[in-house]
């Protein structure tokens, strides 16, 4: 099977799923959106944490360093919460 055949097969399956069970398709789309939001928020928190830690250590600023560590910890908490939510919802 080449890429076009796979793409057409997936489109056919999605089309039949939309006709058979639109609520399930809606749920899959909501999960996909939630996953994208989670990835972006974790990335933003890690990036902010990296910048704040670097600036806090370079300038010896405890408040910046503390906020950077808090951003790192928050990113892990957000990711774990999202994973638990996905496991809980069948």
Instruction: Compute the number of helices.
Output: 3
The H/E string reads HHH
Mean pLDDT: 86
Quickly give the structural class: mainly alpha
Q: Could you tell me the number of beta strands?
A: 0
Residue fraction in strands: under 5%
Distance between the termini: 31 Å
Low-confidence stretches: none
Radius of gyration: 20 Å
Bin the helical content: over 70%
The biggest sheet, with number of strands, parallel, antiparallel or mixed sense and barrel status, is: none
Features:
single chain, 90 residues, mainly alpha, 3 helices
Q: How would the blueprint of this fold be written?
A:
Layout: H1 3-20, H2 22-59, H3 62-88
Give a description of the structure.
The protein has 90 residues and is an all-alpha fold. 92% of the residues lie in helices and 0% in strands. It is built from three helices and no strands. The longest helix is centred in the middle third of the chain and has 38 residues, at 22-59. It starts with a helix and ends with a helix. The model has no long low-confidence stretch (mean pLDDT 86).
Summed up:
The protein is mostly helical and about 90 residues long. The chain contains 3 helices and no strands.
